[in-house]
Amino acid sequence: MGEYVDAHFLRPVELEFEKVYLPFLLLKKKRYCGKKYEEGHVKIDMKGVECVRRDFCPLLVQTQKEMLTILMNTMDVEKACQVVSKAVQDLSCNRVPLELLTMSKKLSRSPDEYKAMAAHVNLAKRINKERGEQHGFVAGDRVPYVIAKGKSHKMSENAVLPEEITSGKYVVDRDYYRSKQLIPPLTRILEKLCDNPKTLFLCNKIVQPPITGVFSSWVKKRKPDQDNTVEHRKIIKKKNKVTLFNFF
Question: Helix and strand tally (H, E) in the chain?
């Protein structure tokens, strides 16, 4: 093919092989995923998607990366959808470790110098006020935070430290992680593959998290649920005959 193209160029322009993607998923400009073939090696290349950025929680990063890897290696749509369904099950049934819900951002300046009040900035200012600046956060520190259920409708005002969750002071806002962290990024990919992607995020049961810390002795213990599963939805593939081979 290179020789054919070179014949139509003026010398000394020559076409040189660089790489080939197969399969290839193009979501938008500078946001894609594909199995890249270069001379000597093959790898899965992900650019611009949420799993290679630091704006989302590890649960989304892990789920999206596993889903894309399955699509690139096996092109099995049902198996990729099962990964998404399992992540929703684990989140709804309180089986997700706190580490997968913990995000972090670095303070580029002192918390008091910020004009835009992001989640990590509000949390750093609150901790500095409660503990004092000597035991708080300063410029250059990375602030870990979890979004908890709070009175404010602003997500940025509901950020808490992970230890405040484990102590029982706050409860994780799983609705936020489901509606803001999981659904938008995964739906953008799933809507290319099936007609009913939103049904994968539906659940018929939500398990309340156990009370921990000093508050655990104040509540009555309950028996654990025997069936902590979410109903599986039937995956409806695209009606038109589009396969991963001719779509990507």
Answer: 8, 6
